[in-house]
Amino acid sequence: MHVLLMLLALLAPDPASPGGAIEATIRGTKQPLAVELLLRQDDDSWNKIAQRNITAEPRHVRFAGLVSGVYQVRVRGAESGEQFAMKIGIGDGDERRTTIAIAPHELTGRITLGGASLGAAALILRHKEFRWEQVVPVREDGTFHAPLWQYGQFIYSVRTPSLPTPYSAHVELGEEPFVIDIPDGRITGIVRDGKSGTPMAGVSVALQTNAGPSEHHVRTATDAQGRFDFVGMKYGRHTVRADTPLYLQPAPAVFELDERSPLRELDLRLDPGRTVPLLVVDAGEDPVDEAMVYAIAGAKLCARAITDEDGGTAIAIPDNEAAFLFVIAQDGGFGAAHVGREHGGERVRVDLPPASSSLLIRAHTTDGAEMPPFALLMRYNGVLVPVDVLEELTAVQGLRFATGAKAEVRLERIPGGSYEFWPYRTETEAEAIVASADDVAAPIRLDVRAGKNTVAVKFAAR
After folding, report:
1. Which fold has domain 274-351?
2. What is the DSSP letter of 116?
3. Quick check: 43 pLDDT over 60?
């Protein structure tokens, strides 16, 4: 009996426990509805935590026992466009009451490709703030018609067999018909082995488009004949990169599309270089899986790979050149190894030192003026790390190689070793530093040891 009473006490709600509540009354429609409650996360995504299904009457729901936070109340009907959401903030113990007025609308419009009919397609709408999605069928003549309960800012995507990659953009939807004319720009090509000329299947091809102030990224893979095709491209500056394991990364193809030249055909050749097998282990000599490996030759990134669960992988480096392998572990720390010009193909072992150090760089001007913002290039144990690899360190480990408050750079959980830094403000300055780094001493040089390290640097005022 005592055990049963204790169990019931554990299961019973605590009447004194804090908790907020949201009460919502829905008007404007009498059809059965699903009312969902979602909590906003730190990354601005929404996590569904509760749902109530209501019929014609009553049109009232209550969610109680809520922790403080920002909530979304989402009302859904039978069709994907029958969705409406609103945001409500809740503090400790708050009770909020609201009325959700549904005003059904009709979404109409037409999609064309370069002014011509696109054919049957699917239009996917995603509300920019609330993240709900609607799929709208598009008829053969390019027109569409669907219910829409909520206007606002959307991200849309058009998918159809005539477009190898989806066409996406942003739009503010209101009462006016939604007309989409997909640009007729096209980029097509073939990827070949640089030595044999054989077409290569399954190669990742990335496209970056800069049209006005916007930047757009899309990726595809080559087919069995080594071909790729990007259709519906906006006019502007385009950068195409091909990447596959065990081949060197070629220089990107950069060009413009405009009304006079809406088509670009490319023949991309990948150099296999020479293959270096390697093993990555940590300070305890355990294999490191999912470590990012970058081959650097002449201070330029030339290939990348990722280790398997046994810490092994292989990577391409240029023929008849020395190279460095720079390794970034997912859970912190990095390391490097040298591969000589005469390397015979044996496996290279990369030992990652413990990430037991931190570094604070404080910058000042000689006249006491405020130091303008700047970024840093880094050389670690003799390896000049390219800017795009430093950006990977930022993305994977959160290391930020640029000044923050008080003109300081803080690098946490880094390995000990020899460090050199060059400050720069523009890409042009960074390129000039890379070109002269072997001849010009770095203004910041130090040996980082275990624990906290601090260095103060003074720069001449400009």
Report:
1. Immunoglobulin-like (2.60.40)
2. E
3. yes
